[in-house]
Amino acid sequence: MNKNLTCLAVAILCAVACKTPEKTVLPVYLDPEKPLEERVEDALSRMTLEEKVAVTHAQSKFSSAGVPRLGLPELWHTDGPHGVRPEVLWDEWDQAGWTNDSCTAFPSLVNLAATWDRDLSRLYGDCIGEEARYREKDILLGPGVNMGRTPLNGRTFEYMGEDPYLAGALVVPYVQGVQSNGVAACVKHFAVNNQETRRTATNSVVDDRTLYEIYLPAFKAAVQEGGAWAVMGSYNLYNGHFNCHNDRLLNGILKGEWGFDGVVVSDWGGCRDDDEAVTGGLDIEMGTWTNGLSGSASDSYGNYHLANPYLERLRDGRATEEVLNDKVRRVLRTIFRTGMSPEPHYGRFTSPEHFAASRRIAADGIVLLKNDGVLPLQVPEGGKLLVVGENAYKMMVVGGGSSNLKTKYEVIPLEALREAFAGKAEVVWERGYVGDVTTDYNKVVTGQDLSENRSAERLVADAVQAAEDADCIVFIGGLNKSDRQDNEGTDREDIVLPYGQDGLIEALAATGKKLVVVNISGSPCAMPWAEEVNAIVQGWYGGSESGHALADVLTGAVNPSGKLPFTMPLALSDGPLKTERQYPGIREEGETWWQEYYDEGVFIGYRWYDTRNIPVQYPFGYGLSYTTFELSNARVAKTSLAPGASQTVTVTVKNTGSAAGAEVVQLYVADTEASVPRPSKELKGFEKVYLQPGESRRITFTLTPQDLSFFDAGSHRWVAEPGEFHALVGTSSADIAADLPFTLK
Ligand code: GLC
């Protein structure tokens, strides 16, 4: 038979053989139909010791290993809470210079918190999760929910305010939104990490009641209600142990009491000890300072605590494979929830819907603090609007630390105001002061030129002169995510506005022109000029559409409905942190670490100011609208409540003004008969209600026994003591419309 015939015969035989394949049986771990835990166990059983150790630590700056031999993919981590960080080089912080990774920049999380809107938080999570999935990232390093213990915390802009109930209520939908895309939300920084000063060398000393009532609830909600798949340990110490491998926090509380089945990721460089890394509840070690891939080390990732040192411990019996298997199960669970999710996820990136969502969230979080009628802006036909302030011009998506983003575009307030008044009035800008001229971070650049050669006096004089023929002035200033001005790694030094802004605002007020002050910041700022200006707006780092969002509110296109997620104090010294041992901590002679004592206990934020009747500039939960609302007919279902029973609180809210708008009805609880000192009120419910003029709605809140309880450290349980309680219904922590007493039997 000649060669061709032989080949033909072989080809026919192969075709026949392949034509009738019996159904190929997939190994369990590869079968998306199989239950998660079966896939985990099957994969675990197939892994070698070296493969198990490999998946517990980084292989590059933002990835941890998979199991190539078994087809188990790597896990790709990415910052941050406000958008998907640009791709970085394998072992560098600098961006890799890709041309396809300019993202949608969403508003800072404090801006989201200021919306008090659970639905917007879900929308936020859905959108940012789509962006992470599209960029093929498995773990989004956010959201952050550390409490606002001090207004000076450099990362206040990345967090969700001073109240655990508000942060907890909003973090849940965000996490669910992110994870609906097959991307793990990684809630951070766990826990009691409430400042940036010496963040890697300070031990937080907190009593259990304070820990459980203030600093844990938002994380607990994210895990137990949000179903978070990942948690990031924080840099600081608690109880003398680093939180990236803190046995009590991670094994005792997170995995033990709360039943967390996901993965604990260290903060970058937060893993500090070979032995505790193994036993302290850490599952994936990221970013440990090594000498990188440069210099002598051929593979610095092998130097990680959970790399070769861990292998040695396993081989010489100092570490058990049982503990290793628990880490690996959690990593595998994360892989099967994300990259190997049974449901297909494709994501979307920089879609019009994402920018629209960003603009909506940014606008709905803007807080109207004062308005004598000058807003919405009215500028006469052919008139002149003077805009003063660097923050009208400076792009703020770039910078601030790890939440820095390379965004497709950023609309600045000046541009948006010019658009809004095009053809109607002239919009002129005067810088007024020089703040931060930085225009780049990790090689991400804004392209702006912020250089200035005029003196501070000249800048003020130019602004005042420009006011002479202006019909209205809008000052746009505040902070700017530069060092000590809302920036990771540094805290602020005071809440006074920097760069001479107070003097400039006074000078503008002295012109007698109508003056609107917009403070753009991520943390509280003092406003000594509040009585001298016509309107005050608290704006935030609003992301790609921040300029449009602000213009929407100033022009009335959007009726402001934001509420402060933190107290705006008159002065820093009015706050609860009176001593150095409270903040930023002290270091005794011969001690390695600083000690920071949370002596104020549960009394932070309005829990402090309100209970001590300390006047504030603007209270927690406060915000005005272009319309007016009225609360009426507030009731409690039971004036005498049986132990263990829930209480129902109802109230009617009505839009009594002429514009559609939204009000946030807030429910606080006061326990006036308690064996421990309790705050004068604590937020235990809120509803944001959108109403047409004249429309009203009846709202119902439920108070559970948990809502009435304090945490009793002695018995390690929540206790609702019999006695008198008050349900307080209002539109801010200081504007209480109804005080409804009831007795718990
Ligand atoms: C940073 C931050 C953390 C971030 C991580 C990776 O130091 O503390 O929030 O996700 O390292 O950039």
Report the mean per-residue pLDDT as an integer: 96
Give the ligands present: alpha-D-glucopyranose
Distance between the termini: 101 Å
Number of strands: 29
Please describe the biggest sheet, giving its number of strands, its sense, and whether it closes into a barrel. 7 strands, mixed
Please identify the structural class as seen in this structure.
alpha/beta
The value of Rg in angstroms is 28 Å
How do the strands line up in the largest sheet?
A: 1-2-3-4-5-7-10
Which geometry do the CA atoms define? globular
Unreliable sequence segments = 292-296
Task: State the helicity in percent bands.
Answer: 25-40%
Number of helices: 18
How much of the sequence is in beta strands?
Answer: 15-25%
Write the layout of secondary structure elements.
Elements: H1 3-19, H2 36-46, H3 49-54, E1 58-60, E2 63-64, E3 75-78, H4 109-113, H5 118-134, E4 139-140, H6 164-179, E5 184-190, E6 202-205, H7 208-215, H8 217-224, E7 230-233, E8 237-238, E9 241-242, H9 247-257, E10 263-265, H10 274-279, H11 308-315, H12 321-337, H13 352-364, E11 367-371, E12 383-388, H14 413-420, E13 425-430, E14 440-441, E15 444-445, H15 456-467, E16 472-478, H16 501-510, E17 515-520, E18 535-539, H17 546-555, E19 594-597, H18 606-609, E20 629-636, E21 640-641, E22 647-655, E23 661-671, E24 682-691, E25 696-703, E26 710-712, E27 717-719, E28 723-730, E29 736-744
Parallel strand pairs: 3-4, 4-5, 5-7, 6-8, 6-19, 7-10, 12-13, 12-16, 16-17, 17-18, 21-29
Antiparallel strand pairs: 1-2, 2-3, 8-9, 11-18, 14-15, 20-22, 22-25, 23-24, 23-28, 26-27, 28-29
Helix pairs in contact: 2-12, 5-6, 5-13, 6-8, 13-17, 14-17
Bound molecules: alpha-D-glucopyranose.
The site of alpha-D-glucopyranose has 7 residues, from loops.
